[in-house]
Amino acid sequence: MKLQTRSLHLGYENRLVVKGLDLELPSGKITTFIGPNGSGKSTLLRSLARLLKPRQGSVLLDGKAIHRLPTKEVARQLAILVQGPQAPEGLTVEALAWFGRYPHQGFFAQRTEADRAIVERALQQTGMVVFRDRPLETLSGGQRQRAWIAMALAQDTPVVLLDEPTTFLDLSHQLEVIHLLQRLNREQGKTIVMVLHDLNQAARYSHELVVIDGGEVVAQGQPTEVITHDLLRRVFGLEAHITLDPDTLTPHVIPYGLSRRS
């Protein structure tokens, strides 16, 4: 499943956020968008999922303009977890997960044994089986986040897009989620595209990094190619030591001061 952009312009009202972006995302890999706040990362992710229509240019899914494809067809190929999702009061964890099966169901929305197995697997993968009958509003922030991830997994798509999937989670649950995404990529070949703020998590767990600043891609490649002292200064305004993670030999950033962004 190939996902790319061509001369993509994105914006809100009178503000242009992404400007003429050409980007190709590797299939079957974990790609992470990094960059300062307001750089356009989440805006780009929403456009990739057809939640935001381009001002100009296009998002291509296997060579076809995604905004011209039927909604259900796109939803069978792409699942997205946005920031701060909302659900009706009283909706249970299992009921939320079932929403992920909607793109795969027919007109009468009949639930099959295959649907049930996929929903059950999504609940198990996210550790939400024990909470299946709990309304979302009774859960902690981290539990709610895992419930929404379960819905995205129940959609059972080859591509999964996640905007800050570790938000509200403590460190152990952050690692649970990221390790889950790793397993989905490694064992099922899913293409994972996510936005992260933690540079070290992004470098350790991603095959490829895309650095976005001012609505433009300023660097793209493997973490060892992308994470440099110059980039940290220019994009993040950081002075930092860069060491190698002893387990993965990926860059590990240790900030020690602020620099003036050029």
From TrEMBL:
Membrane-related topology note: Peripheral membrane protein
UniProtKB keywords: ATP-binding, Cell membrane, Ion transport, Iron, Iron transport, Membrane, Nucleotide-binding, Transport
Entry keyword Nucleotide-binding: yes
GO cellular component terms attached to this protein's record: plasma membrane
Domain ABC transporter: 3-239
Localization, UniProt: Cell membrane
Keyword Cell inner membrane: no
Membrane-crossing segments per the record: none
GO terms (BP aspect): iron ion transport
Molecular function, one GO term: ATP binding
Alphabetical list of PANTHER family matching this protein: IRON(3+)-HYDROXAMATE IMPORT ATP-BINDING PROTEIN FHUC (PTHR42771)
Protein name, as recorded: Putative siderophore transport system ATP-binding protein YusV
